[in-house]
From TrEMBL:
PROSITE patterns: TOPO_IA_1 (PS00396), TOPO_IA_2 (PS52039). Its EC number is 5.6.2.1. Gene3D superfamilies: 3.40.50.140, Topoisomerase I, domain 2, Topoisomerase I, domain 3, Topoisomerase I, domain 4. This is DNA topoisomerase. The lineage of its organism: Bacteria, Bacillati, Bacillota, Bacilli, Bacillales. Residues 159-600 form the Topo IA-type catalytic domain. It holds the Pfam family Toprim.
């Protein structure tokens, strides 16, 4: 009897898989399925809890690597090893036992390179070898799609290549992060720097993009420019127009006025020389990838990219939308067919009604050749009832409606508008006026209406005829050149995707275009959150600005490959080759080692140009937070990735994590725990659901949850 064990990435995913079949038994660590046509002998679904397994820390290899010292660099282990992530031992042991008992193991983690990494890293650490491995590859958690996926499991040849790609990326990022962070921080400390820098292959060039915009704004010098503006008064209303001159020198503008014998603020007669009207059609927007949805949601509701991804993940787990971490804007004919079948139901869900202009697939949206692993984000076949829709949060409702509207828009008519250009001559000086008038809303009626100010910008012009005489009054208009605006978070996502446009090297531009810039669709929002957490950037009123700490980082990495997207371009290009079987993980890791050696030689010089600034952080790194609760000699200090006792050399082993159940533990929380042995009730811990609890120190000076304490 064949025993099949299926590994999901997280409990919610396992639950969605199990609900597509008949459940026999549920336990804390697995779900047992009853035998059926798909699983004649039944099957067992178990899960990770995010990453069950992580790369070992430097001190796990050598105790001396725990201390940040220049003479210990570079830190490059002979072999990179994994360990069970903190707090996840019990689930790992359950997975290991099930893998040992299995005849066939199925990787049912997320369908991307990180899902492959999670599965094979766990498998490798369990020590289980020689068993057949299958891969579940689906884009939706709907019951039909889950059943279809399990009935057509794939072999794991592609999965193994993706694992090699992901592991090469993970190891190289570890090497750059560990070595570069220590290297730059320790050199800066010699100049009096009192904090630390976190440096990463993708996060650092992202900060540098924001720094470049900061420099553009800072160095911008506003300059006046002059134009001739006319206010025209026909019988049907009024309109403005500009002469075709735009000069920094006011005298040149005045000279043009003099040439045509014109003076400011005097009344003249103008002639409408030409009225040019063009009817224009605008097709509906392309279907959403993750980044286009993040941009729209940031512009419309000021949602952060991270907020959009979290909301999408919830909708995905509720089986309302397809796989969220996609960079594709197309669907195949299979998805198009089910969308057509559900067209009326989707309209009811969005509370709209229209007659489709066509039910035939259009290459603008439906193109199998453009779909690789994942297709665009669209609604699933599961159309929610009004009751289910009313149960969605405001964010979920807004994002779901945006996806629904964009999907329905491909069946709607074009948005049609009339663009009018009027050429008005005053004593032979031509003035140009442009306006826009809506003719037919078409697909636009599916979306929220733009603000009144936006509509006012595109005001319609009055109705005038060729040869018509109009009253005219002119003035020389003075304006100032405007500095570039700071990026919004939505624009930052686009900048990360298109940063190749800022680069000089043609080859690098092409590579970045191919790999779509910095980071991947799945990681860009977390990169932005990381550089926020590191206090390199601040976001106020949706505008991204760089901090003094961020400026210092950029001054330190300026001129190195860490400041340039080109390194990421080359890395991502080679990583893709590993994923397709054309590249080697070993070669990639070796090249990263060479890069770090080069960085060690260049860094002392690059640090010379850095001006040490106060980072505004409340505590200096390594400054005492509280007396150690265990020993009488040491103090608890911030040790960068954890809190620990300063008397560790004398044998005190007390350490506290920086994060517990998804919540960051602050200096104040640690101080309270050390001094009072317990905290008040704190919000924001994450398990299967978000929960609140107090924290307490047990007899072994370990942090425990204290659910008994009332808020």
């Amino acid at each position: 009897m064949t025993k099949m064990v299926i590994l999901a990435e997280k409990p919610s995913q396992a639950k969605a898989y199990a609900e597509a079949f008949t459940i026999q038994e549920k336990s804390k660590t697995y779900i047992q399925l009853k035998p059926d046509d798909t699983f004649p002998n039944g099957a067992t679904i178990t899960w990770g809890v995010g990453h069950l397994v992580e790369l070992k820390e430097p001190h796990d290899y050598k105790p001396e690597w725990k201390r940040w010292k220049l003479d210990q660099l570079p830190i490059v282990p002979e072999r990179f090893l994994e360990k069970v992530s903190k707090g996840k031992w019990e689930q790992f042991q359950a997975v290991k036992k099930l893998f040992q008992q299995a005849d066939v193991i199925v990787n049912a983690a997320d369908v991307d390179r990180e899902g492959s990494n999670i599965f094979y890293s766990i498998l490798r650490l369990t020590g289980v070898k020689g068993k057949p491995i299958k891969r579940l590859w689906i884009n939706s958690l709907e019951k039909d799609e889950v059943r279809k996926g399990f009935n057509s499991l794939q072999d794991n040849s592609k999965d193994l290549r993706l694992f090699d790609e992901a592991k090469a990326r993970q190891i190289s990022d570890w090497m750059v992060g560990i070595n570069a962070s220590r290297l730059f921080t320790l050199h800066l400390k010699k100049k009096g720097f009192e904090s630390y820098l976190s440096i990463g292959r993708v996060q650092s060039p992202t900060v540098y993009l924001i720094y470049q915009r900061h420099k553009e704004i800072e160095n911008f010098k506003p300059e006046p420019f002059y134009q001739i503006e006319g206010l025209f008064q026909p019988e049907s209303g009024s309109y403005k127009g500009l002469a075709e001159i735009k000069e920094k020198d006011k005298a040149k503008v005045q000279a043009l006025m003099d040439k045509h014998r014109l003076k400011e603020k005097e009344d003249y007669k103008g002639i409408v020389q030409k009225v040019d009207k063009k009817t224009k059609h605008q097709k509906s927007p392309k279907l959403h990838s993750l980044s286009t949805l993040q941009s729209v949601a940031n512009r419309r509701w000021k949602y952060t990219p991270s907020q959009v991804l979290k909301t999408l993940q919830k909708l995905y787990e509720k089986r309302l939308v397809t796989y969220p971490r996609t960079d594709c804007n197309f669907i195949t004919e299979n998805e198009f067919a089910y969308v057509v079948n559900n067209l009326n139901k989707y309209q009811e869900a969005l509370n709209v009604s229209f007659t489709p202009t066509s039910l035939e697939p259009n290459k603008r949206y439906v193109n199998s050749s453009k779909v690789q692993e994942h297709y665009a984000i669209i609604p699933t076949k599961s159309v929610p009832t009004q009751k289910k829709l009313s149960g969605l949060s405001r964010e979920e409702s807004n994002i779901y409606n945006e996806i629904l509207a964009t999907t329905l828009a491909m069946f709607h008519s074009d948005y049609v508008y009339e663009e009018t250009t009027i050429f008005t001559h005053v004593q032979d000086l031509p003035f140009k006026s442009t306006g826009k008038r809506d003719v037919k809303q078409g697909w636009k009626e599916l979306f929220p209406k733009p603000s009144k100010s936006k509509q006012k910008e595109e005001a319609d012009l009055p109705n005038v005829q060729n040869g018509e005489q109009v009253g005219a009054r002119l003035h020389i208009k003075e304006s100032m050149t405007q500095p570039p605006k700071p990026y919004t978070e939505g624009q930052l996502i686009n900048m990360m995707k298109t940063c190749g446009k800022l680069m000089d090297d043609v080859e690098d531009v092409e590579i970045l275009k191919e790999v779509e810039g910095l980071g991947t669709e799945a990681t860009r929002s977390s990169i932005i959150e990381t550089i926020k957490a590191q206090k390199y950037i601040e976001v106020k009123r949706n505008n991204v600005s760089i901090t003094d700490k961020g400026i210092m980082l950029c001054e330190a990495i300026e001129g190195t490959l860490l400041s340039s997207p080109s390194m990421t371009a080359k890395w991502e290009s080679y990583l893709k080759k590993i994923g397709s079987g054309e590249g080697s993980k070993q070669v990639f890791i070796k090249q990263t080692s060479q890069f770090i050696e080069k960085l060690m030689q260049e860094t002392p010089d690059s640090i010379e140009q850095v001006n040490i600034r106060s980072t505004g952080e409340k505590k200096k790194w390594n400054e005492p937070i509280a007396k150690c609760p265990a020993c009488s000699t040491g103090s608890i200090t911030d040790r960068y990735k954890f809190y620990g006792c300063s008397a560790y050399k004398e044998g005190c082993k007390v350490t506290f994590p920086k994060k517990l159940a998804g919540k960051t533990l602050t200096n104040n929380m640690i101080k309270t725990l050390c001094e009072k042995k317990r905290t008040k009730v704190l919000k924001g811990f994450k398990g299967k659901k978000t929960f609140s609890t107090a924290l307490m120190l047990d007899q072994d000076y370990k942090i425990k949850f204290d659910f008994k304490q009332k808020a």
